[in-house]
Amino acid sequence: METKLQELKQRLSVVNDLYAAGAVLGWDQQTYMPPGGAAARGRQLATLGRLAHEQFTDSAVGKLLDDLQSYGESLPYESDDASLLREVRRSYERAVNIPPAFMAQFLAHQAAAFDVWARARPDNDFASVQPYLETTLEMSRQAANYFPGYQHIADPLINWSDYGMSAATVRALFAELRSQLVPLVQAITSGEPADDSCLHQHYPEGQQLAFGLMMAQRYGYDLNRGRQDKTHHPFMTKFAHGDVRITTRVKENDLSEALFSTLHETGHALYELGIAEELDGTPLSGGTSAGVHESQSRLWENLVGRSRLCWEHFYPQLQAAFPSQLGAVPLDTFYRAINKVSPSLIRTDADEVTYNLHVMIRFDFELDLLEGKLAVRDLPEAWRARYKADLGVAPPDDRDGVLQDVHWYGGLIGGAFQGYTLGNIMSAQFFAAANQAHPEIASETARGEFGTLRTWLTQNIYRHGSKFTAAEVVEKATGGPLSIQPYMHYLRTKYSELYGL
Ligand code: ZN
Predict the structure, then answer these.
(1) CB atoms closer than 10 angstroms to residue 66
(2) Sign of CA dihedral 491, 494, 498, 501
(3) What percent of the chain clears pLDDT 90, i.e. is strictly above it?
(4) In this structure, what DSSP letter does residue 241 have?
């Protein structure tokens, strides 16, 4: 059995390397590649994706998994090997259902769609991406239909990013959250809006990047194992345990853009960097679900990065970095500015309170598109109508409407967005558990120290990689199932104080 396990691991390591090579090409595509490289890059990514898929779905892998099935079940549930066999069995069954020809076709389409979108967004040109998006929708349905037996056509797609969730469970959770969020948004927005003009002065790019990276390092981002580059849609990517990269974008008239996107991507990176080194190069060497991943980016961006405690330490340094812009601005004014609640058009710029309403719109549209209730050509208009109804604002153009997010132009339609809100919900649940175990986290934060918090997160979440499902991680780390209560408690406490509710 040991020999068979070694052979399986050897094969999986080849698959891992092919995906990692693809990730390097994808990182370059979104950072430094000149536009002329697009067509070849799409083909190269498709080739690597196809090779990885072929290697992984090789019948020899299936045979090894069958041979090792009862051996895996005889091992302790929490052991690395038992977890590996469980996880690989699940992803193998998923992968063999997707024909290689479809996979290759989809990867090529994905690269082409991304390239068209990257030009269509600045040009406000939905018409040029519409046919690509129609193909994406058709292929998303096709992908789901390789997994018959679902209740809702989105279920297989949701399961890929947030294993264990379904359209029905997400809908129910979102409905409960929405019923508590909408009155809070109304209470906040009926009062005096926060003044965030201090953030909208001229902040030179170089100093912004330096300050963000300094904070990322204080959080624990290690530049021996990472680096930061610029892109148009910030992301984190991992090539190996020793190479986890972040990207950001800078607006010189908006201090919050690069700063908080850096703290966000740093949270994703800390998760990946904290995964046990023994799992490197195996299928367990990544975060366990989109939701748990996002819980870490949001925890470091918002629960820490937008807290008053954190800025008690960092604000004097920020003032020193930007004396003419912030020298005369009190901490409280800055704190209110970075926590301004105001219904807006762009999801990634949205405040913590309205953010989830943006996610719910996209989640509902994914279900409607997949069900055939909504046609791609009607999406821009549906987008405007829904923003007007839910947030009271309507985008003047598609650039700030349906073209704003990369997801549908660089992936499938279905399962792409619910993880953001699941992540917000989990972030507060994890943070509450960490603070309960270690009340000194608050005073450390006020000194710009994060070791106790990061260690708790590493021990309870990061080091496991994808050994356990999201539901198992939540249960192990917090002692209970997923709940919106810690999140609503956090929002109510923070914003009641800020807005005098
Ligand atoms: Zn994120």
Answers:
(1) 10
(2) positive
(3) 93
(4) T
Helix (H, G, I), strand (E, B) or coil at 122: helix
Average pLDDT over residues 326-345: 97
Say how many Å lie between the CA of residue 297 and the centre of ligand 1: 5
CA of 293 to the centre of ligand 1 (A): 7
pLDDT at 198 over 90: yes
Top pLDDT among 100 and 292 is at: 292
Q: Give the pLDDT confidence score for residue 46 in this predicted structure.
A: 85
Return the HEC string of 186-217: HHHHCCCCCCCHHHCCCCCHHHHHHHHHHHHH
Please report where in the chains the tokens 């019923």 appear, as a residue.
Answer: 179
pLDDT above 90 (res 364):
yes
- DSSP letter at 351 equals -
pLDDT score, position 82 = 98
Token output for 15: 């698959």
The per-residue pLDDT for range 110-123, each reduced to its tens digit, is 889 998 999 999 99
CA-closest candidate to residue 156, choices 97, 113, 114, 103: 97
Pairing of strands 228-230, 243-248: parallel
Give residue 89 CA to ligand 1 midpoint distance, Å: 27
Q: In what order do the strands lie in the sheet with 236-240?
A: 228-230, 243-248, 236-240
Specify whether the CB–CB gap between 417 and 366 falls below 8 A.
yes
pLDDT band at 191 (very low <50, low <70, confident <90, very high): confident
Bridge pairing between strands 228-230 and 236-240: unpaired
Residue 161 CA, ligand 1 centroid: distance in Å: 13
In the Cβ-directed half-sphere of 120, how many Cα atoms lie within 13 Å? 23
10 Å CB burial of residue 440 (0-12, 13-18, 19+) is exposed
Give 73 Cα–ligand 1 centroid separation in angstroms.
34
The amino acid sitting at 315 is Y
Segment 294-298 mean pLDDT = 98
For residues 143 and 401, what is the distance between their CA atoms, to the nearest angstrom? 26
**Residues with CB in 5 Å of ion ligand 1:** 297
Specify the range with the lowest mean pLDDT, choosing from 29-33, 239-243, 312-316, 497-501: 497-501
Q: Is the pLDDT of residue 192 over 90?
A: no
Q: Which of 1, 17, 6 is nearest to 283 (CA)?
A: 17
Asked if residues 25 and 45 have their Cβ atoms less than 8 Å apart, the reply is yes
Contacts of 95 (CB under 8 A, 6+ apart): 53, 56, 57
How many whole angstroms separate alpha carbon 18 and alpha carbon 14?
A: 6
Separation CA 255–CA 337 (nearest Å): 11
At residue 6, the pLDDT reads 97
Instruction: Catalogue the active-site residues.
Output: 265
